[in-house]
Amino acid sequence: MENPLGLDHALEELTVEARIEQTRLCLIIADIDFFKYFNDTHGHQTDDQVLRLVGRTLDDGTQGRDFSARYGGGESLAALVARADSLLYKAKEPGRAGSIIPICKIPPDFSLFQKPCRMRKADAIIATMIVLFTDFGAAGPYTGQMTAALHKTAPHVPVIDLLSDAPAFDPQASAYLLSALISDFPDGSIFLGIVDPGVGGDRMPVVVKAAAQWFVGPDNGLFDIVIRRSNQNDGGAWQITHEPEYLSASFHGRDLFAPAAAAIALDHAVPGEQIAVDALRHTGWPDDLAKIIYVDHFGNAMTGIRAKTLPSGTTFQISNTTIAHARVFSDVATGALFWYENANGLAEIAVNQGRADEFGLSVGALVTVLTPD
């Protein structure tokens, strides 16, 4: 049977594994009643034998990756169970030594796990993940600096760099792109969205809960489409009022928004005051944006139009070029320009084995939608 330090290490490893494998995890504490009285009456040598016997009994109930250890006082033992259900049932069988009490059972879709109080507060909870969506670009120190700020407060929370080349200085195009990308992530994910040309100005720093996700960033429309397409009855919005000890004029992503995202990941209260969600809406924006909002590494040009909203036979026109629909690349000749529904549900303009951006397509280009009569 391992010592308390071994339990700490196993708890961290098995928690991560349970999240990846979507399995249940349970922590069980076993405490021997009246142990001090037994020790005073029969002596240390006899109580050590009792501890070994109870420990073996607990070990007998574990299997595979399950883990047992001493914890707390000499009379306390713990079991960390990678496959929780079987041991919980065994714990209820009559005649088992000790009083075994399950204190935490984590279903696969639960996003927070409280570690033992022996560990530092900053390490106490593992959240689903923090997802970065920025226009910082692949070069430069900014993504790394913001990730370091997250790690400082929440070192065990996974950080996913989803996109660092969102349309630069363009919250509107970024809003339609962000909305198309969030469905890949589990409920409770925290999106740290920084497309913030007005940094240091009078735009509000906000936290939004929508579509079962959290969004942290500037109130400049970046989260408008996510809010619009979500069930607002299950959401909310907050103005961040917390003032960090140091706040640069030009890097709120690192100094203000990253600490707020980390606080939410650690299950702390949102560092701000609740406001009406409607206060964040940009009512002049269309439901679908007939513009190019992103050009990827292959030169494919994504529009802000959801493909499912377009009737069969729809074509696009850009300048003097008409672009017909195809289901997949191989349906058209090599070098042919066409549009299709991409993997994120957006209408995307592409060239089979070529680059659509060589046809003059760039972020912000207007797309004329021609539907059949």
Features:
373 residues, alpha+beta, single chain, 25% helix, 8 helices, Rossmann fold, Alpha-Beta Plaits, 4-stranded antiparallel β-sheet, 18 strands, Elongation Factor Tu (Ef-tu), domain 3, 7-stranded mixed β-sheet
Low-confidence stretches: 85-127
Based on CA atoms alone, the radius of gyration comes out at 27 Å
Indicate how many domains the architecture comprises.
3
Please state the structural category: alpha+beta
Beta-strand fraction estimate: 25-35%
Tally of alpha and pi helices: 8
What's the rounded overall pLDDT mean? 83
Describe the overall structure:
This protein is α+β, with helices and mostly antiparallel strands and 373 residues long. The chain has 3 domains: 4-109, Reverse transcriptase/Diguanylate cyclase domain (Alpha-Beta Plaits); 130-280, Rossmann fold; 289-370, Bacterial fluorinating enzyme like (Elongation Factor Tu (Ef-tu), domain 3, Beta Barrel). It has helices at residues 4-21, 35-42, 44-60, 84-91, 142-153, 171-181, 224-228, 252-265; strands spanning 25-31, 67-70, 76-81, 99-106, 130-134, 159-163, 190-194, 205-210, 213-218, 236-240, 272-275, 289-295, 301-306, 315-318, 321-323, 337-341, 346-351, 368-370. Strands 6-5-7-9-8-10-11 form a 7-stranded mixed beta sheet, covered by helices on one side. A 4-stranded antiparallel beta sheet has the order 2-3-1-4, sandwiched between helices. The radius of gyration is 27 Å and the shape is elongated. The N and C termini lie far apart (76 Å). The model is unreliable at 85-127 (pLDDT under 50).
